[in-house]
Amino acid sequence: MSKQNDSNTVLAPERARTKPPGMYKVILFNDDYTTMEFVIEVLQRFFAVNSERAQQLMLQIHNEGSAVCGIYTRDVAETRVTQVTEFAQQSGHPLRCSMEEI
After folding, report:
1. What Å distances lie between residue 66 and 13, 62, 76, CA to CA?
2. pLDDT beyond 90 at 90
3. Exposure class string for 54-66: b at 16+ Cβ within 10 A, else e
4. Can you tell me the mean pLDDT for 78-102?
């Protein structure tokens, strides 16, 4: 008598489920020294917003103390924070920029 052998059965490998990358919001903070014009320049240069949107965000930063300027993956958010911080320092402004995980 022969027994049926299931050794021919090939199991499909389990697919690893990847989570989408974590997202981070990049935030600019108000201070008493950075000019409104400089904040608008930063928003247009590093966050690719048009002049009208830059004006709105600048006023939000001024009136509310901070504003979210964009939402990015971790690497992109870190790059934006570094670019803004370095640009502000080179320009003699104490503008603060940070990122927070969503």
Report:
1. 48, 7, 20
2. yes
3. beebbebbeeeee
4. 98
